[in-house]
Amino acid sequence: MNDHAESHPGSAGRTGRRRFLKLAGLAAAGTALAATEARAGAASLLSRTAAAGTFVVPIEDVRHTRTWMAFPDSTSIWGSKLSGVQADIALIARTIAKYEPVIMCANSASAARARSLCGSRVTVISSIPVNDCWMRDTGPVFRTDGAGDLDAVGLNFNGWGGKQTYSRDGLVAERIAAYVGVPFTYADLVGEGGAIEQDGAGTLMATRSSLVNSNRNPGMSERQIEAAMRAAYGATKVIWFDGVRNQDITDDHVDATSRFLAPGKALVQMPLSTDTDAYARDARQQFSVLSASTTSTGAPMAVSKLQGPDYNKIRSTNRDFLASYANYYLCNGAVISGQFGDTQADAAARATLARLYPDRVIEQLNIDRLGTGGGGIHCVTQQQPVR
Fold first, then answer.
1. What is 19-382's CATH number?
2. What order do you get walking across the sheet with 196-198 strand by strand?
3. What are the sequence ranges of the domains in the chain?
4. What's the gap between Cα 22 and its chain centre?
5. pTM > 0.85
6. What whole-number percentage of the chain has pLDDT above 70?
């Protein structure tokens, strides 16, 4: 989700990503926040012990056992946009299901609709209830040890800093781990999967605006948060970007702008040269920082550019729309990315992704309804890697 809104040029002063969602469930969020903090505290010793082992969050291009998704059904969150968003979620699920199994978590009341929209190739379950569709942020982060074992870590999801209700979403990570039957621990920080990118070989990247933030980790220093991230992901280095604060619900997730391609290789979605808003400046800063960075082993970082679209040429006129090609999802044999109606930019993005992933099919989907919520394909998916 989120990753993280991009915005139309010159729009830096607006509230931004999923602005309308903030109206939903704030009272409930406060109660759930207290529960999450208590649970995280109780689990902190256990999570530190588990993370000290050999488990590592692998890079996302490893082979997957399945993809996890969530089916939204809340009109208090989505209003009149709900049916369109449901259709986009189903389109993503059906597309991924051509390449690997997909499990869709749906509430009992909407499971039948989810099955109807998703088709028989997608497995819909109602035993893991959800508030919303952002599985990247609510789901577990799976880790492997290279010896056939799998476990999972929860990032203590708190509704992006208490901005949205998460009474169900706050429990999704541990419930999925229980469904899979793998050990589960909570990390020693509050965050979301879209806030942290990993190369699987010791290096992470993230924005300070999202994680070094009192709405997630009050009283924690950047050094303490970094240590918790490294422990949870089995990493040794974090590349930090400043990010953008208080303009979108995620406080600028990294996965809409910068992604790892491989250890020592990354990409950044670049704005047009005429774009001057906060997110355009952020993207340029991320490219600059990454280009001057090294990996956990000291190797230089090679950074590719992925050109973003012209917001004046895309289909959507919604000012909170996320037009991020970089928010793609890797599944077995394919890259699932968005296309937004700027035909020249869409074609160029497809060509870039085909060059970067020559052994994968490039699927570009129209997910405009989901994009009005400020999220994309990576935001609503969570991979379960092969052990």
1. 3.75.10.10
2. 196-198, 203-207, 237-241
3. 19-382
4. 18
5. yes
6. 86
